[in-house]
Amino acid sequence: MNRFKRVLAVMALGGVGTASWFVGSGLVKNVQFARAVEQVEVAREQLARAEDLAGVFRTVGKAVEPSVVYIRVTKKEQADDRISEMRRMFPDDELFRRFFPDRDGDGQPDMPEGHGEDGNVMQGQGSGVIVEADGSTGWIVTNNHVAGNADDIRVTLADGREIRNAKLVGADPKTDLAVIKIDADRLIAAKWGDSREMQKGDFVLAFGAPFGMVGSMTHGIVSGFNRQTGILGQFGYEDFLQTDCPINPGNSGGPLVNLKGEIIGINSAILTRNGAFQGVGFAIPSNQARSIYQSLKDSGRVTRGYLGVSIFDANKARELAEQMGITRDGVVVSEVRDAPALGKLEPADVITRINGKEIKTVQDLRTIVAQTAPGTETTFSVIRDGKEMDVKLKIAEQPDDLVASAGRARDRADRGGAAERTSAEKLGLTLTDPTDEVLGRYGVEGEKGAVVTRVAPDGPARAAGVRPGDVITRIGDREIRNADEALDALSKLGDAKGIGLHVASKEGKRFVFVPLTRGGR
User: Fold this and answer.
1) Upper half-sphere CA count for residue 462 (Cβ side, 13 Å)
2) Which of 96, 142, 367, 394 is deepest in the core (most CB within 10 A)?
3) Which of 355, 353, 347, 305 is nearest to 330 (CA)?
4) How does DSSP classify residue 162?
């Protein structure tokens, strides 16, 4: 019915003569009423479609819920140490990821009573999803922070059965994923989806047991991609999918699904100031989770590629990009620490592509290298001294102890006694010439440059990682042989917002960018 006909219908229903419609404000009021009637009809049509969407949600629930499980674990560890660690990792206003429930509302995990003489047995809970079932065996994906290092795992299925002999197949702290195996029949596995097909604004639903409420389902939308939060540490592989779908303690390890009922993420973390959901949740993308699952299921561990470098984003240092003539996104090599990069790549190289695939961020490079099979010959396109070139090398296997070995604090303390000659106040450095005695003291024999003897604790060089014992061999594009040359180069910085330093130390050579103002990075 068009609008004109609806107006006539309203006139007839009103029981008034047509002549009165054209007198004074009566016409205006009745036209307004006709419009209101039309708006109500349109709204009802829209609500009918909304009811259709609710039907979709209900259907997704029926398709996914049989695959969702509730997980309870026991871990034997020192309770006081664990609580201290959690307080350190998750202070107020920090990214928060909780494993143990907090029913007291005190912001700290509850401790079970009467378990162990020393109180060192801890219990926790979380969620998981069956992703594969074969006869009387099933495999479940959950979070490492739920099941990793667990001594006893109990899985409750959607139909109420409790499986007490669940086994941890493997865990990967670097992605916060774990795989559990159970022996049971009548299992229904959920379907994997493609997280790359998701777009911002797409509806998603989260399943699990928030606060122990088994069988819960919430919905929201995808609100972001490629989030790096830092909760997995320096050596973690974060590529989180962000959602406003409510995720709370106990949802960890449960599936995030699309409207097809396919897994597009594994719920892992929330951003909060009070320990409860505040509108920002994170899930491990299904494409990453599926790959890790297969590796853990097949071998109990994850094999990753390894390059042996320290890196940072070129676009995070605009001044450096200008100095180096970088006109595109890329990743700057700050230090070559190990093979296979040793002897192939150099500090200050800017990596722009790997096997022709564009590299824009550190996360891009780390992900591609990690997913490359060890022994694969790989071509790195780099900018070195303003020139583009290709470097070929074979990717190595990432050491299992990478976190431990790379995380050791370097013995770089100022041992004193150096013959101080000059002070680079702008950087917060005290420099001296490379005499045999000074170089020997710091274990950098044979190097030429300006030797750093002291670093101001609040100076920009300290924040950038320069330490006593470092030898500055190049400032910008100028080679440095002694302290006087370093001071001369620094005096010509003018209003530069930052400077690139080539540095040698007993651990090797590296490239450091020192921002001189807040806008320098």
Assistant:
1) 13
2) 142
3) 353
4) E
Q: What is the pTM of this model?
A: 0.67
State the pLDDT confidence band at 483, using cuts at 50, 70 and 90.
confident
Beta bridge partners of 217: 207
d(CA 457, CA 429): 10
- Cα–Cα nearest to 500, from 442, 469, 460: 460
Chain centroid offset of residue 179 CA: 20
CB 239 within 8 A of CB 228: yes
Q: Which residues are catalytic?
A: 145, 176, 252
Predicted local confidence at residue 369, as pLDDT:
93
| pLDDT tens per residue across span 197-251 | 999 999 999 999 988 888 899 999 999 998 877 778 767 888 899 999 988 888 9
Give the pair of three-digit tokens for residue 231. Answer: 């909760």
* Half-sphere exposure for 453 (CA within 13 Å, toward CB): 22
| pLDDT computed for residue 317 by the predictor | 58
Do residues 126 and 253 lie in contact, with contact meaning Cβ atoms separated by under 8 Å? yes
How many other CB atoms are there within 10 angstroms of residue 7's CB atom?
Answer: 19
In the chain, what's the furthest Cα-to-Cα distance? 112
**Would you list the DSSP string of 22-50?**
GSTTHHHHHHHHHHHHHHHHHHHHHHHHH
CA angle 317, 468, 420 (to 5 degrees): 115
Q: Can you point out the beta strands (E) in 52-209?
A: 68-76, 95-96, 121-134, 137-142, 152-156, 162-172, 177-183, 191-192, 203-208
Q: How confident is the model at residue 91 (pLDDT cuts 50, 70, 90)?
A: very low
Asked if residue 145 lies in contact with residue 137, where contact means CB atoms within 8 angstroms, the answer is no
List all residues 6 or more positions away from 9 whose beta carbon is below 8 Å from its beta carbon: 1
Residue 102 gets which letter from DSSP? -
Phi/psi for 86 (5° steps) reads -65, -40
For helices 3-14 and 26-64, give the axis angle rounded to 10 degrees: 110
The SS3 assignment for 295 reads: helix
**Radius of gyration for the alpha carbons in the chain, expressed in angstroms and rounded:** 31
Residue 60 near residue 261, CB atoms below 8 Å = yes
Q: What is the mean pLDDT of residues 419-435?
A: 73
